[in-house]
Amino acid sequence: MSSEPIPLERIYNLGRLGSAGDEVVVSANTAELVQLAHWGSVRSVESFSAKIDLRRLSSSRFSYDAVLQTEIVQDCVVTLEPVRSVLKRRTRRELHLAETSRFPADGDVVVDPVSDDDDVREEIASLHYDLAAPLLEELVLAIDPYPRAPGVAFAAPPDPATKPESPFAVLKNLKK
Prior knowledge:
Elements: E1 11-13, E2 22-27, H1 30-40, E3 44-56, E4 61-75, E5 82-97, E6 110-111, E7 120-124, E8 128-130, H2 132-142, H3 167-175
Parallel strand pairs: 5-7
Antiparallel strand pairs: 1-8, 2-3, 3-4, 4-5, 6-7
């Protein structure tokens, strides 16, 4: 993954979230798909969409539950042929609005390392939350670092049958 700017951003004001919650669909347009491919170091991203279910748990706690589906094309590590993959991931987060005095000065997100299950507790500095950030994290985790075309296996080069004679072996034979 490159260190370029984030290719996809969808800011949502959690302060306007009602008690009934909200369902948000995030999908990338053509230009964003190109940026996602470049950012994710893949040949292309054919589609990128997610359905996000947001719920207000309290005035400072929110539930984020998303299902991501994306289709990517990568280069086979053996033959360099295109390899298509459909990636489906589900992610859950519990967002906690942090007090500004406790939040790090650089604005980074603090993730709670202790978790009972797959849910992640995340402290946020503002009610303006980027819904796409967890989706991009899931995309990066889902990309196969060594994709192979179907039926292709890596075969190590064969050892040469006749090894060249060592110069020291020749000297050894001269002694006789």
